[in-house]
Design a protein that fits this description.
This is ABC transporter-like protein. It is a single chain. The chain has about 260 residues and is of the alpha/beta class. It has 11 helices and 10 strands. It has helices at about 50-55, 80-85, 100-110, 115-130, 130-135, 145-160, 175-195, 205-210, 230-235, 235-240, 250-260; strands at about 10-20, 25-35, 40, 65-70, 70-75, 85-90, 165-170, 195-200, 215-220, 220-225. It has a 6-stranded mixed sheet, sandwiched between helices. The protein has a 4-stranded antiparallel sheet with strand order 2-1-4-5, covered by helices on one side. A hairpin with a 2-residue loop joins strand 9 (about 215-220) and strand 10. It binds adenosine-5'-triphosphate.
C-alpha cells in the first residue's frame, strides 16, 4: 500500500533562528514537510541539523520565527505538549530506557494513548517491522546492540501513533549494512503506514535515496532545496555530499563553486 502525499504541510518552519548563548546555530530557516512524505535535511557536522529538530520538538525555544504543526502554532509549546499533538522526536544516540525491557520501552511510547486494542495492534506492527524486538521483548533495552536500540527508538516513536516523526541521524555509529536495513524499513513504514518523517542525516546517499524532498543546510542556513530526485542530479550535491568528485577539478575551484551557492 502506498499512501499519497498531500500538498498541505503538516509542518512549517518560517524564518526560524535558534542560538546557544551567543552562538547562532540556525538562521532564517524556512521549510515545510507535507503529509505522507519523507523530507530530509542534509548537512555536514555542526551545520545545525540537530538544532532544527530540537527547535521543532520544543527542546530549544527559537529566538525568531515560528513553527506550525498541523496548522497550529506550536512555537511556544513545551516538549510534552508537542508529543501529545502527535509530533515525536527520535534523538541522535537513540536514548532508550536501558533498565526497562524492550516491551516496556515500547509501552512508554504509547503512554498518552487510551486505546488499548490499538496499542496492542501497533506493538504487533512494530514487531512485524523489527522481528528482533519481539525476540528480545523481555530483555533490558540496555542489552541491545546499537542497531537494535535504533530500531527500538524508532518503534517507540511509532507506538505513539504519530503524525510526524523527527529522525536524527539514524545511521550514526551503525555499519553500512545495518544502516541500509534500517533505512529500508523506515521507507516501508512511510509507504505502508503513511507516517510523515523529517530525517536529518550526514549520510547524504542514504537520505537522498530514502526521502522525497530535501533541504541542504550549511552553517545554519538552508542553501538549497528540491525534490531528492533533482538534488541527486545536481553537480554540487554529487561533489560535496555524495563524494563523486569530478576528475581534474582543483580543490580551490570546488570551494569557489560551493561559495556560489549563496
Ligand atoms: N549545547 C550547545 N552549546 C553551544 N553550542 C552548541 C550546542 N549544541 C550545538 N552547538 C553548536 O551549534 C551548531 C549546530 O550544532 P548541531 O548539533 O545542530 O549541528 P548538526 O548539524 O546536528 O551536527 P552533527 O551532525 O555533528 O550532530 C554547531 O556549531 C555546534 O557547535
Amino acid at each position: 500500500m502506498s499512501v499519497p502525499t498531500s500538498d498541505a504541510p503538516v509542518l512549517k518552519l518560517s524564518n526560524v533562528e535558534s542560538a546557544y548563548g551567543p552562538i547562532k546555530a540556525i538562521r532564517g530557516v524556512s521549510l515545510q514537510v507535507r503529509r505522507g512524505e519523507i523530507a530530509t535535511v542534509l548537512g555536514s557536522n555542526g551545520a545545525g541539523k540537530t538544532t532544527i529538530l530540537k527547535t521543532i520538538s520544543g527542546i530549544i525555544d527559537p529566538r525568531k520565527g515560528s513553527v506550525e504543526f498541523k496548522g497550529e502554532n506550536i512555537t511556544a509549546l513545551d516538549p510534552a505538549h508537542i508529543v501529545q499533538q502527535g509530533l515525536l522526536h527520535v534523538p541522535e544516540g537513540r536514548e532508550v530506557f536501558p533498565l526497562l525491557s524492550v516491551r516496556d520501552n515500547l509501552l512508554m511510547g504509547a503512554y498518552t494513548r487510551k486505546d488499548r486494542d490499538g496499542v496492542a495492534r501497533d506493538m504487533e506492527m512494530v514487531f512485524g517491522y523489527f522481528p528482533i524486538l519481539r525476540e528480545r521483548a523481555t530483555q533490558d533495552a540496555g542489552l541491545l546492540s546499537g542497531g537494535q536500540q535504533q530500531m527500538l527508538a524508532i518503534s517507540r516513536a511509532l507506538m505513539a501513533n504519530p503524525d510526524l516523526i523527527l529522525l536524527d541521524e539514524p545511521s550514526l555509529g551503525l555499519s553500512p549494512k545495518l544502516t541500509k536495513e534500517i533505512f529500508e524499513i523506515v521507507v516501508r513504514i512511510n509507504r505502508e503506514r503513511g507516517t510523515t518523517i523529517l530525517l536529518v542525516e550526514q549520510n547524504a546517499n542514504m537520505a537522498l535515496n530514502a526521502a522525497d524532498y530535501g533541504y541542504v543546510l550549511e552553517n545554519g542556513r538552508i542553501v538549497m532545496e528540491d525534490t531528492c530526485a533533482h538534488l541527486r542530479e545536481k553537480d554540487d550535491i554529487k561533489e560535496f555530499y555524495l563524494g563523486m568528485k569530478e576528475a581534474g577539478v582543483r580543490a580551490d575551484r570546488r570551494w569557489k563553486k560551493k561559495k556560489n551557492w549563496r
